[in-house]
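Open question from group meeting: does this chain pack into something compact, or does most of it stay loose? Before anyone orders reagents, we agreed to write out a predicted structure and look at it together. Recording both the input and the output here so the notebook holds the full record.
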Amino acid sequence: YITALYFRNTCKINHLKKLFMKKISTSLILLSFVTLLLSNVKSTKFSSQPPTGYTGASGDYCVQCHSSFALNTAGGSVSVSGLPNSNYVPNQAYPFTLTISHASANRSRWGFSIASTTTGNNAIGTFSSTNANAANNSDELSHNGAVVTSTQASYTYTNLTWTAPATANQPVTFYFFVNAANNANGNQGDYIYSSTKVVAL
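Structure tokens returned:
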């Protein structure tokens, strides 16, 4: 009797172990699926407009999420044209362009953000744009639906504007980053480039 009881209890314990392990396996698979789904949703969301605070002004960059490659690798770059080089006229609007360049013609989605700050890291001046793929993003100007192209090595955002503050009594530092992306609806395989431009008085 004791042997039969021991055998029956052992079988129950083994059965419970199997059920427990099966539930854990199912839960892990479900968790992995949800994590992947949220990652894709996040990437899709940020391709519409990126989160603020990753231009480099505060020391943070998008490589924290787009982590396949180190910042400014693979011969790529970002440049702006049209912003003042030294001094600026109060309240004057400066139309500018922002160009993303990559070493190989294999990029097909293009994102950016730009911020303008004082030496105390406070926003200065205002951004605006008539480009349908660019819009104000808090104090920054960012892509608004990252542009999708055929595979190529560069892309230029046009019709961007920075308007100087009412008084020209502080230097300005422009911080900008770009994403030369592969349009794979995820955050891997993309190249992040950044730079700065200082307008001294």
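Observations to bring back to the group:
The first strand starts at residue 77 and ends at 81.
Strands lie at 77-81, 93-101, 107-117, 126-129, 134-137, 140-143, 147-152, 154-163, 172-181, 191-199.
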